[in-house]
Specification:
Number of strands: 18
EC number: 1.5.99.12
Largest sheet: 8 strands, antiparallel
GO molecular function: cytokinin dehydrogenase activity; FAD binding
Strand order of the largest sheet: 14-11-13-12-16-17-15-18
InterPro entries: Cytok_DH_C_sf, Cytokinin_DH_FAD/cytokin-bd, FAD-bd_PCMH, FAD-bd_PCMH-like_sf, FAD-bd_PCMH_sub1, FAD-bd_PCMH_sub2, FAD-linked_Oxase-like_C, FAD-linked_Oxidoreductases_BP
CATH class of the largest domain: Alpha Beta
Cofactor: FAD
Structural class: alpha+beta
Helix content: 25-40%
Bound molecules: flavin-adenine dinucleotide
Catalytic activity: N(6)-dimethylallyladenine + A + H2O = 3-methyl-2-butenal + adenine + AH2
Low-confidence stretches: 1-26
Mean pLDDT: 90
């Protein structure tokens, strides 16, 4: 027995040495210290060009930056070992957790450093998704690994008749990735962004410490990590609040030709926290963007297209009401009377009943269809802003009717409001300071490389317009490069941001792709 154990240890030792030698001989990158190979995590490190190339691009396809290595942890301990090693290593190298790389500007890149492929912790793995409850106060929650996709969180919680309350439009994003930003969608007006719906986190800091944090325990880290752009730690578990899942959804498209009426109705709907819509979004559509879908028939899409051509553009208010099958007729009646208070174009209300999961996962179906027709080299120069309610009219005149007037690759253009009191001001996610209601504007085109230059110029024009007009705007999923811009972005929260970085990632190892801190503090 002892002999067998000895020979096992010898084999493992020799294998490690052999791997180390072969890694060096295939060219261990200069940027990484050889000491990494002494860790027992060596077989989780991938240096081959195929893998590093795969992790050098993201959904945006606007830039490319190869890591020296990709790390595939099988547990949070593996991640902590890597970060601890980097923290104590005399040779500087950065580390980026990568959810699924759905960023558009290289936010999950680690140029010359190590990308942690969070997916290898185990997508959909039962032990990384646990639904449970507390008695006092009574509350249901799911403990989800940071690498888990929201679609898997939905399926798991739904088995228990439960669901998270706040979503993104697209559910094939990771828990850690969206919680590092905010996580917004049509439910945000009612429940706040996803970061407002978290009870507790497990985080690995930039020193390699594993810390559990919540509003009560290590609260500075908790508030910092939620919306903190990956700067203070890697989320390995999030405890997310749950509520009973509805069975059905009444889904509506209401068409407007008048922007003021469109926004007035959106604002009225988000002020109704009882017996109103459960989801409110909106978008601008030009005639050429109108097409039939699983929602809009060929005939109705022609009707909408004609209207959009006549007015140059139309506004589509997208709403949803959740309900239980047994309550259907009462809900329909209440909805009818609510619709009477709205000012959409008569005859231009479209409704559909779908399952709750079908509604939440609606974008994936469209995305899959689009991906199958899109070329591989399609770029996504997406650009998102938050604007105070009082300036939305100015923005519409100058941007939708001005700067973007002749846009060819308009793509999806989202416009919908939030209630500021559903955002926790202690969290570092940046939102406009001044007003109780603010809008999100999402310009989400698919573009060729030639289009991109033109769109990039437009985004700069939009930012210049906001600056000139003194609009208190913030970028969502921000894409700044200079420290001055980051300071402006975080505004009064900047000092706290720097203090937290000093405390939890003083060597600036984490999420270098955000380009906030480029050297140790
Ligand atoms: P990545 O892009 O891989 O990472 C994003 C950042 O977070 C990086 O800086 C990374 O280092 C860091 N990070 C990743 N995982 C962790 C972790 N576990 N701990 C700490 N830091 C981490 N956003 C919305 O809010 N609402 C939407 O409706 C919405 N819809 C989208 C639809 C599509 C098709 C796409 C492509 C994106 C959409 N987004 C939306 C944006 C999305 O929230 C961001 O792309 C986000 O970064 C999540 O993507 P990801 O999980 O792939 O993370």
């Amino acid at each position: 027995m002892a002999l067998r154990r000895f020979s096992h240890i010898t084999t493992v030792f020799l294998l490690t040495i052999y791997r180390a030698i072969s890694l060096v001989s295939v060219g261990w990158p200069d940027t990484l210290p050889l000491g990494l190979l002494d860790l027992d995590i060596v077989d989780k490190i991938h240096l081959d060009l195929n893998t590093t190339t795969q992790f050098s691009i993201d959904y945006g396809q606007l830039s490319q930056a190869a890591p020296a290595a990709v790390y595939c942890p099988s547990s949070p301990d593996d991640i902590a070992a890597l970060v601890r090693f980097a923290y104590t290593s005399p040779r500087y190298f950065t580390i980026a957790a990568r959810g699924r790389g759905h960023s558009v500007r290289g936010q999950a890149f680690a140029p010359g450093g190590v990308v942690v492929d969070m997916a290898s912790l185990g997508r959909g793995r039962a032990d990384r998704l646990n639904v449970s409850s507390d008695d006092a106060p009574a509350r249901w929650y799911v403990d989800a690994g940071g690498e888990q996709l929201w679609i898997d969180v939905l399926h798991e919680t739904f088995k228990h008749g439960l669901t998270p309350r706040s979503w993104t439009d697209y559910l094939h994003l990771t828990v850690g990735g969206t919680l590092s930003n905010a996580g917004i969608s049509g439910q945000t007006f009612r429940h706040g962004p996803q970061i407002s719906n978290v009870y507790e986190l497990d985080v690995i800091t930039g020193k390699g410490d594993m810390i559990t944090c919540s509003r009560e325990e290590n609260s500075d880290l908790f508030y910092g990590v939620l919306g903190g752009l990956g700067q203070f730690g890697i989320i390995t578990r999030a405890r997310i609040s749950l509520e009973p899942a509805p069975q059905r959804v009444r889904w509506l498209y209401l068409v407007y030709t008048n922007f003021d009426m469109f926004t007035r109705d959106q604002e009225m709907l988000i002020s109704k926290l009882e017996k109103g819509f459960d989801y409110v979004e909106g978008r601008l559509l030009k005639g050429k963007d109108v097409s039939s879908s699983s929602f809009i028939s060929e005939e109705d899409s022609e009707k909408i297209k004609l209207l959009a051509d006549e007015f140059g553009a139309i506004y589509l208010l997208e709403g949803a009401v959740y309900y239980e099958q047994a309550m259907a007729s009462m809900v329909y009646q209440e909805l009818e009377s609510l619709l009477k208070q709205l000012s959409f174009v008569p005859g231009f209300a479209f409704t559909k009943d779908v399952s709750y999961i079908g509604f939440l996962d609606r974008v994936h179906e469209e995305d899959t269809k689009q991906s199958s027709t899109e070329h591989e080299d399609v770029l996504h120069p997406w650009f998102n802003l938050f604007l105070p309610k009082s300036r939305i009219r100015d923005f519409e005149s100058a941007v939708f009717k001005g700067i973007l007037k002749n846009n060819n690759p308009v793509g999806l253009l989202l416009i919908y409001p939030f209630n500021k009191n559903k955002w926790d001001d202690k969290m570092l996610a940046a939102i406009p300071d001044e007003e109780e209601v603010f809008y999100t504007i999402g310009l989400l085109p698919s573009a060729t490389r030639e289009d991109w230059e033109y769109l990039d110029k437009q985004h700069h024009e939009i930012l210049s317009f906001c600056h000139q007009e003194g609009i208190d705007f913030k970028q969502y999923l921000p894409q700044y490069v200079t420290e001055t811009d980051w300071m402006k972005h975080f505004g009064r929260k900047w000092d706290v941001f720097v203090q937290l970085k000093r405390r939890y990632d003083p060597k600036a190892l984490l999420s270098p792709g955000q380009r906030i801190f480029t050297t140790p503090l």
